[in-house]
């Protein structure tokens, strides 16, 4: 049975917008529906025929109107645990009640399936939603893992790429693999999953698997500069730093959360590989680190807007 109607909850976010663009290009005959608190925040003129619904994540009546008649719901919520757990549970319950066949959870992250519940605390919501979907009788859960967003790896808050000094900061040896997938590539794979009625369960996609030293080589190849490499310490020292920083800063996540992501990536604890599902959709080309950098001017690396990462807007 073909997929005819797809709904994107949280469509005004970065992933939601790119997913809508990818779906419109790959399947122009598919009916697209979007749910947002304020649809006017985004110009959807490039998406003719999209049906926009205004509604809050906890407005059951608005959600029911949004999901009614959908084949697939994609959740692109991004927020605190209350939204990511209770908000998704409400969306799942109403979608199941309305006969929706599949629910694509708001994941797009490293492989939390390999971790104990709450071990990487910012991904506990993903784990709890996964468990909740596992209890459902009729709606099937889908979880798309992509490692880390390439765009975010170079963002200032992630503390790897220093634009001012053109330095790559790292822990460990610099040889550890990073699984990186850009926002755009993640949306492309998600679109393929949406259109594949057989796609259920946990799916893993990687745009690139590359080390810090490989990133340095990519920067040299694309931009013609040789970045500095600055070692911050050992893996053990990173582990101690992330724990101490959480104790110190508590709710101020952006002061320390990058340590946690870096640790669970370079330790290998939350790597997706070695098996990936890229081959399931050969029509989607993996965007490597160098491919990504060729789309982004050096002064925009780590500060990409939707216009830089999308092939639909010339860079």
Automatic annotation (TrEMBL):
Q: Which domain of life is it from?
A: Eukaryota
Q: Which Pfam families match?
A: NAD_binding_10
* GO molecular function annotation: oxidoreductase activity
Q: What family does the entry list?
A: Belongs to the NmrA-type oxidoreductase family. Isoflavone reductase subfamily.
Annotated ranges, domain NAD(P)-binding = 10-105
Q: What is this protein called?
A: NAD(P)-binding domain-containing protein
PANTHER family, A to Z? NMRA-LIKE DOMAIN-CONTAINING PROTEIN-RELATED (PTHR47706:SF9), NMRA-LIKE FAMILY PROTEIN (PTHR47706)
Q: Which Gene3D superfamilies match?
A: NAD(P)-binding Rossmann-like Domain (3.40.50.720), UDP-galactose 4-epimerase, domain 1 (3.90.25.10)
Carries keyword Metal-binding?
A: no
- The organism named in the record is Exophiala mesophila
Which UniProt keywords are given for this protein, alphabetically ordered? NADP, Oxidoreductase
SUPFAM superfamilies per the record?
A: NAD(P)-binding Rossmann-fold domains (SSF51735)
